[in-house]
Specification:
This protein is mainly α and 223 residues long. The protein has twelve helices and no strands.
Length: 223
């Protein structure tokens, strides 16, 4: 159920972004998706039998998704799987460090890099992943709220405040959340939905608007 909620709300968000840019209701619903993906990334990092293989899988999905993402959503940006991949790499490095304090410069360096790269969600994604990894119980809600407040104040991400809804369930109603986690989709559906739905939306977008999208390759490789 949790995976289905994430996929459907993401699909609604992307449909609204492409075809109904003036109607914020689509984007509001879409705020539910990204925190679930961040939470699932952390769970995958914790429970996977092979973290290198998990990272390679993320890399392949990111690469397969990139052109559909550029054609459907952002001609000059990197798709969100790259954001998740870099966040997973940070978790991987942090777990290898002999002293937790050594992780501070690692996180700062990753934050600066991800904030400068044209990544979907930028360093916000990294910070949310770290919250799900290291913060527990109701402190998780407070940390997510402070993160959203920071991005609201400095970047004007008003609608992003609603992304706290999944975190309220994860931390505030863990029994209900575990119930949602009990039934899972086949792995191939969960992993393939992101690139496939973007490829379909890109095709519909090109046919609907009768206009080809030019990918801004220079922007992709500019820091």
């Amino acid at each position: 159920m949790m995976q289905i909620i994430a996929m459907l709300t993401m699909l609604i968000d992307h449909i609204g972004y492409i075809f109904f840019p003036g109607e914020m209701g689509w984007r509001i619903v879409g705020r539910i998706a990204f925190p679930i993906y961040c939470y699932m990334l952390v769970q995958g990092h914790i429970h996977t039998s092979s973290r290198p293989r998990y990272l390679r899988r993320l890399l392949w999905i990111a690469l397969l998704t990139q052109i559909p993402y550029n054609l459907a959503l952002d001609p000059g940006g990197w798709n969100v799987v790259f954001t998740l991949l870099l966040s997973a790499l940070v978790l991987f490095v942090l777990d290898k460090l002999p002293n937790p304090w050594y992780g501070i410069p690692v996180v700062i360096l990753a934050f600066v890099l991800m904030d400068r790269l044209p990544l979907d969600y930028n360093a916000y994604g990294l910070l949310l992943v770290l919250i799900f990894r290291y913060v527990r119980s109701y402190w998780m809600i407070l940390a997510h709220f402070l993160l959203n407040s920071f991005y609201l104040f400095y970047y004007g991400w008003t609608v992003q405040m609603l992304s706290i809804v999944p975190t309220l369930l994860i931390a505030g109603a863990p029994g209900f959340w575990r119930l949602l986690e009990q039934k899972r989709l086949p792995r191939w559906i969960w992993w393939s939905f992101y690139p496939l739905h973007l490829a379909a939306l890109a095709l519909v977008k090109i046919l609907y608007f009768q206009e080809w999208v030019t990918i801004d390759w220079r922007s992709l490789f500019t820091i």
